[in-house]
Design brief:
single chain, alpha+beta, Alpha-Beta Plaits, two-stranded antiparallel ribbon
Protein backbone atom coordinates (compact mmCIF):
# COMPACT_ATOMS: atom_id res chain seq x y z
CA UNK A 1 0.00 0.00 0.00
CA UNK A 2 1.18 3.53 -0.71
CA UNK A 3 2.64 5.56 2.11
CA UNK A 4 2.51 9.26 2.82
CA UNK A 5 2.82 11.86 5.50
CA UNK A 6 1.32 15.26 6.15
CA UNK A 7 2.58 18.56 7.43
CA UNK A 8 0.05 20.88 9.01
CA UNK A 9 0.71 24.60 8.73
CA UNK A 10 -0.44 25.15 12.28
CA UNK A 11 -0.73 28.93 11.98
CA UNK A 12 -3.49 28.50 9.36
CA UNK A 13 -5.47 25.60 10.87
CA UNK A 14 -8.78 26.60 12.48
CA UNK A 15 -9.74 23.17 13.89
CA UNK A 16 -12.77 22.76 11.63
CA UNK A 17 -12.28 18.98 11.52
CA UNK A 18 -13.16 18.56 7.84
CA UNK A 19 -9.85 16.84 7.15
CA UNK A 20 -10.34 14.45 10.07
CA UNK A 21 -13.69 13.39 8.62
CA UNK A 22 -12.28 13.12 5.07
CA UNK A 23 -9.31 10.88 5.94
CA UNK A 24 -10.09 7.32 4.75
CA UNK A 25 -7.36 5.86 6.98
CA UNK A 26 -8.48 7.76 10.12
CA UNK A 27 -4.95 8.88 11.04
CA UNK A 28 -5.81 12.51 11.86
CA UNK A 29 -7.17 14.11 15.01
CA UNK A 30 -7.55 17.53 16.57
CA UNK A 31 -4.52 18.24 18.77
CA UNK A 32 -4.65 19.09 22.45
CA UNK A 33 -2.18 21.97 21.99
CA UNK A 34 -3.21 25.37 20.66
CA UNK A 35 -1.69 27.57 17.98
CA UNK A 36 -0.99 31.32 18.28
CA UNK A 37 -4.62 32.12 17.39
CA UNK A 38 -6.04 29.82 20.05
CA UNK A 39 -7.14 27.03 17.69
CA UNK A 40 -6.21 23.38 18.15
CA UNK A 41 -4.49 22.30 14.91
CA UNK A 42 -4.87 18.88 13.34
CA UNK A 43 -2.15 16.29 13.77
CA UNK A 44 -1.31 12.90 12.32
CA UNK A 45 -1.41 10.70 15.40
CA UNK A 46 -0.61 7.28 13.97
CA UNK A 47 1.01 5.54 11.01
CA UNK A 48 -1.09 4.59 8.03
CA UNK A 49 -1.27 7.72 5.86
CA UNK A 50 -1.46 6.65 2.21
CA UNK A 51 -0.83 10.11 0.75
CA UNK A 52 -4.25 10.33 -0.90
CA UNK A 53 -4.48 14.09 -0.13
CA UNK A 54 -8.18 13.97 0.75
CA UNK A 55 -7.35 15.99 3.86
CA UNK A 56 -5.56 18.70 1.90
CA UNK A 57 -8.29 18.91 -0.75
CA UNK A 58 -10.95 19.25 1.94
CA UNK A 59 -9.11 21.89 4.00
CA UNK A 60 -10.70 25.33 3.41
CA UNK A 61 -7.59 27.11 4.73
CA UNK A 62 -4.93 25.24 2.70
CA UNK A 63 -3.24 24.32 5.96
CA UNK A 64 -2.15 20.79 4.99
CA UNK A 65 0.67 19.63 2.75
CA UNK A 66 0.81 15.96 1.71
CA UNK A 67 3.96 14.09 0.76
CA UNK A 68 4.20 10.66 -0.88
CA UNK A 69 6.92 8.41 0.50
CA UNK A 70 8.83 6.45 -2.14
CA UNK A 71 9.57 2.89 -1.09
Amino acid sequence: MAKGRIEVLEQYCKSCGLCVAACPMKVLRISEKTNAKGYRPVEQFKEGCIGCAMCAVTCPDAAIEVFKIQE
